[in-house]
Amino acid sequence: MEVVDIDARAAKLGIDWSQVNFDSIQLPPGEDFGIESDDEAVYQDDQSEFDTGFGNIIVVDHLPVVPKEKFEKLEGVVKKIYNQLGVIKENGLWMPVDPDTKMTLGYCFIEFNTPQKGARTRLFLMVEYFLRVSLNVWGSLQEAQNAKEKSHGYKLDKSHIFAVNMFDDFDRLMNVKEEWEPPQARPYVPGENLQKWLTDEKARDQLVIRSGPDTEVFWNDTRQKAPEPVHKRPYWTESYVQWSPLGTYLVTLHKQGAAVWGGADTFTRLMRYQHSMVKLVDFSPGEKYLVTYHSQEPSNPRDASKVEIKVFDVRTGRMMRDFKGSADEFSIGGPGGVAGASWPVFRWAGGKDDKYFAKLSKNTISVYETETFSLIDKKSMKVDNVVDICWSPTDSILSLFVPEQGGGNQPAKVALVQIPSKVELRQKNLFSVSDCKMYWQSSGEYLAVKVDRYTKTKKSTYSGFELFRIKERDIPIEVLELDNKNDKIIAFAWEPKGHRFAVIHGDQPRPDVSFYSMKTAQNTGRVSKLATLKAKQANALFWSPTGKYIILAGLKGFNGQLEFFNVDELETMATAEHFMATDIEWDPTGRYVATAVTSVHEMENGFTIWSFNGIMLYRILKDHFFQLAWRPRPPSFLTAEKEEEIAKTLKKYSKKYEAEDQDVSLLLSEQDREKRKALKEEWEKWVMQWKSLHEEEKLVRQNLRDGEVSDVEEDEYEAKEVEFEDLIDVTEEIVQES
Amino acid sequence: MFRPGGLCFEPITATWLYSELFTNGTLTGLTIHHLKPSKSQRTLADQIRRPSTVASSVMTIECVNPEGLRFNQMKSSSHQTLETRMRPILMKGHERPLTFLRYNRNGDLLFSCAKDHTPTVWFADNGERLGTYRGHSGAVWCCDISRDSSRLITGSADQTAKLWDVKSGKELFTFKFGAPARSVDFSVGDHLAVITTDHFVGTSSAIHVKRIAEDPEDQVGDSVLVLQSPDGKKKINRAVWGPLNQTIVSGGEDAAIRIWDAETGKLLKQSDEEVGHKEAITSLCKAADDSHFLTGSHDKTAKLWDMRTLTLIKTYTTVVPVNAVAMSPLLNHVVLGGGQDASAVTTTDHRAGKFEAKFYDTILQEEIGGVKGHFGPINALAFSPDGKSFSSGGEDGYVRLHHFDSNYFNIKI
């Protein structure tokens, strides 16, 4: 039984854990409701301790042998020692005395207080919960163990060093066989195949959705035009779920902390990370580390809220470092700064190594390395007034933006800094800047900086771009201005892995969309405009993860207009609408797109799956729809050349899939026909039954109607043709006889 | 020709979704040719006299093979959209939202109830207003017409139910209750009527059975039977007679459907909580032969039940709360009407409301089409007894009368 389940059931029954006093629950002895703890180690510990019932007794040896006169004094000393370690049961100390000599025997038994009977069964039930929530309660049972460990080797004086053993151990040790038996080697239990989902025969992708209390994982089966369920669980998470960047894990959030799930067939819990009231989580790009975040509202509203951030190793579950402090330390610029705290607080350097992560705070950039989890060179970088940092998605290059200072005396600056050397690779000063936004291209080749500048009057702003070519020598910078300088920029997006980008600019409600390339046909070092689409109902851009295709979406005010556009051919493939759509997400392969209406709207919650070229495949409606997320895939192992080769010989491969498609659709239409036939037959049965009953009741009905016979109209009426002549006007005219 | 509350025409597009039919593995595509009606056909007078013929003359369907190709079987499951142009007749006679619509047995008269206090009768063919029934002093929730179309019974929020002479509009009798009358239904033979009342100061919601006298002079107000709802605070939105007047079927705000013995008043059956509606039942419509009935609920579903055993047979799921339901007497079609709650309408785009009458295949439970047009939620739906036309009444105060065109009758799924 999972804690989640316990919580879920409690929520169902309206029980608030904090109101429940577990000690007040008395369960009948021996009753465990058939529920076993899933934490085996603990379970077995319990067994051995309780089996004999002497688990709370220790044996203290090497006491001084004293005569009767000194007995009480010694007893007092021993009691004093052990009272510090636990509560000795009333009359729980027994020092045997030699009946002949009246001398003590040099040892004594001490019994510690244990909870009453019944507690044991209760523990079986609640052990999981206790372990997490209140270790203290559990601990009280272990007084004896504790006392044994603490006082073993206690020096009463030079010649009397305590030897303390558990009473149960005597039994156990007496039974040890004289001959040595080689310990059995534990059979190797292979871990779960965490990447099994990638080997799906039909090469489908998974997605997770949350609606109402349920969290469900599906295969997106477009052949069947329906999602195929993988795993469903009510109350799986207490706030939201998130995939790890490579798709290996699904993380859920709970009161007690975060948990990751994954595995070959169904989702099993792989690891838990204790962080009570965790609010946000973030993975490192190589999913080696998990960052969890919790903030507590201050009791005094004038104080900043308290923030606690922990970094865990995903696989071992070990906490690598935690950061505590007031919210100011974790927000950009601190109090009075430009922006508030933004998640993720720690930004991970690109690449799979998960080597560095950086934090921005007032006038400082703190870069940590994961080998030691400490600051690089033991100190933070001081950058006055820095407001934004951004890692390259592939290299350990940090771009940062510093706004204008001193009323324009000191220009604004965008700089690229190499980590860990902290060498500034490139910097550019910018004048009369109101704001900057940095956009890295996904393979780290280009950096676009959108610069909003004041006009001369300082009353309005206009935008332009500074384009950095990272991979070229000396990192050349090119300035790009839109055809109409005064156009407002509504959205910007790089083509993933590509050299193109799209910009929505102009005025609402019908802005223009332009596409640019970082290359021209002749010159690879110059940016060029490919096309401008005039007056589009769009305010958001969604590139396919493979590039080439883009969705121009009109969310919010545009009611969910979608235009599927092919940038290679510069043509619209399809236009569609998902009314009131709030979210759009491409699947990791770029074959399908999901659009969703989440519960921000009351009506028509659910999602629709489209093909990349805008054909609607299927639609699922779910009330109280909160979240949809495709399971990411790790990057392909194929080299660029190999991929190109496959693209060229695609026909060879596609035959197989086309045949499969054909089979499935045949099967489907067959199934569909069968289903319809069955439904029709079932309905016919009802109709027959109704007809016969109706016939049987005919006479009764007739009586009820005072003898009126017919049920049906036809007999009652007959059609008659009536000719109707209407005299409209009569005029008499005298015709003159000739 | 034009009387007060007269007519106006507006071309409207109804959308039917076609699932391809295929024979012997070969598909036949359907293409539609729009033919412009000739001038003479477009004359208003002609439309008024024969709206259905006008509508059908607007278009014809022809079966051709698109692109001259055989359809790949893969496409067999794809839907084709077939649009037809039906000209609904807009009937503006009510000043407040419509609450109920009912045809008489012959299908030549249409009775409408609205929150303005006057039930109205219309010619079901051309939408001409025939007359009104004046006398209520509150919203009229429901009505029923006797088999011979001589009597009308209406239930109103003015705490009365009234019997009317259909022809003269004369008020024959008034049943007085201490609470608003919500629904009325004549029994087979028209000797009994079942009337439900809401909970009100001091009274809880109840179902009353009244005897209807042959001669209005002999009419008395006494109830033959009074059934108390288990939860008196919840409204009973509809109660109708079961087969042979032996039972009474009721549904209301507590989401449960109950079958009562009409003689003893004993509760015989109650819908299962698992399979039944989850939220308030707003409407209930029974088949002509009293064998089954359809319920609509705020839980965004409509359910089809066997009237004798209360077995759930079908469930139709839609995206908006269902306010009104109707079953076609001709084809296996059910219609659901509803929409976003009136209070939330003004805050969103008109399309968000989904004020559409949605057609479903009764057997396959699949949506086959929708008829748009209302500016507010649909509160009332009714099929004419011949199944060739239907009308809808909305929160917008309009009754829209639709005569189906030939396309509709050719829908195959």
From TrEMBL, chain A:
InterPro entries, per the entry: EIF3B (IPR011400), eIF3B_RRM (IPR034363), TIF_beta_prop-like (IPR013979)
GO cellular component, one term: eukaryotic 48S preinitiation complex
Keywords from the named record: Cytoplasm, Initiation factor, Protein biosynthesis, RNA-binding
Keyword presence, Transferase: no
A GO term, aspect molecular function: translation initiation factor activity
GO biological process, one term: formation of cytoplasmic translation initiation complex
UniProt xrefs under Pfam families: eIF2A
Protein biosynthesis among keywords: yes
Major place of residence: cytoplasm
Lineage: superkingdom: Eukaryota
Places the protein is found: Cytoplasm
Domain Translation initiation factor beta propellor-like: 428-628
Family according to the record: Belongs to the eIF-3 subunit B family.
Function: Component of the eukaryotic translation initiation factor 3 (eIF-3) complex, which is involved in protein synthesis and, together with other initiation factors, stimulates binding of mRNA and methionyl-tRNAi to the 40S ribosome.
Assembly: Component of the eukaryotic translation initiation factor 3 (eIF-3) complex.
Protein name: Eukaryotic translation initiation factor 3 subunit B
Organism: Arabidopsis thaliana x Arabidopsis arenosa
TrEMBL record, chain B:
Protein name: Eukaryotic translation initiation factor 3 subunit I
GO biological process: formation of cytoplasmic translation initiation complex
Molecular-function annotations in GO: RNA binding; translation initiation factor activity
Keywords (A to Z) from UniProt: Cytoplasm, Initiation factor, Protein biosynthesis, Repeat, WD repeat
Protein task: Component of the eukaryotic translation initiation factor 3 (eIF-3) complex, which is involved in protein synthesis of a specialized repertoire of mRNAs and, together with other initiation factors, stimulates binding of mRNA and methionyl-tRNAi to the 40S ribosome. The eIF-3 complex specifically targets and initiates translation of a subset of mRNAs involved in cell proliferation.
Listed CDD domains: WD40 (cd00200)
Family: Belongs to the eIF-3 subunit I family.
Cited InterPro entries: eIF3i, WD40/YVTN_repeat-like_dom_sf, WD40_PAC1, WD40_repeat_CS, WD40_repeat_dom_sf, WD40_rpt
Pfam families in the cross-refs: EIF3I (PF24805)
Subcellular location: Cytoplasm
Organism, as annotated: Arabidopsis thaliana x Arabidopsis arenosa
GO cellular component terms listed in the entry, alphabetical order: eukaryotic 43S preinitiation complex; eukaryotic 48S preinitiation complex; eukaryotic translation initiation factor 3 complex, eIF3m
Keyword Phosphoprotein: no
Primary location group: cytoplasm
Subunit structure: Component of the eukaryotic translation initiation factor 3 (eIF-3) complex.
SUPFAM superfamilies: WD40 repeat-like (SSF50978)
WD repeat intervals: 91-132, 133-174, 236-270, 274-315, 371-401
Domain of life: Eukaryota
